[in-house]
What we know:
Elements: H1 5-12, E1 19-26, E2 37-44, E3 52-58, E4 63-69, E5 80-85, E6 93-100, E7 103-110, E8 121-127, E9 134-139, E10 145-150, E11 155-160, E12 166-172
Antiparallel strand pairs: 1-2, 2-3, 3-4, 5-6, 6-7, 7-8, 9-10, 10-11, 11-12
Protein name: Protein SEH1
Pfam family, one: WD40
WD repeats: 127-159
Amino acid sequence: MAEFQNVIDSMSTFGKAMCLSASISWNPQRGESQESSFVLGFNSDTPQLNSSKVWEFDQAHQRWLPVAELASPGDNVDQVYAVAWAPNIGRPYEVIAVATHKGIAIWHLGLNPDSDGRLSLEKIAQLSGHNGEVWQMEWDMSGMTLATTGNDGAVRLWQSNLNGVWHEEATFEPTS
């Protein structure tokens, strides 16, 4: 528990903020050169707490450190409903999906930290198609297909083509 203290401390600076929900996804595959890491997103009544950050374990200091915040410059802070870290089979970057009321953002996260310990980050797609919030996301074991579901009851499968353009591959609608 001591190694999670700075994660807890970063949240407690907001006083009595109410966390409506939180979503966590561990890096499913880490090589010997990578430390343990996870992405954590919050849905809160306090805008400053609404974020999704990648945390990595620092062996030297025996604690978790934030290494990336999944937000574009100028983005308004957004309630995070779900996060999902894709398995990485040979890519030179990680892929993380973040669901907010704006839809699903697909992020590429660099593998090598800069001199400040931060990882490079690029939002490569913004997916929309659900009517309402997306509450659950899951990658297939290859990290190539993302399944999403939410308030509308539909299950949607998303994939990128060879050019990196994301599209909805299939939809399974609820029947009455």
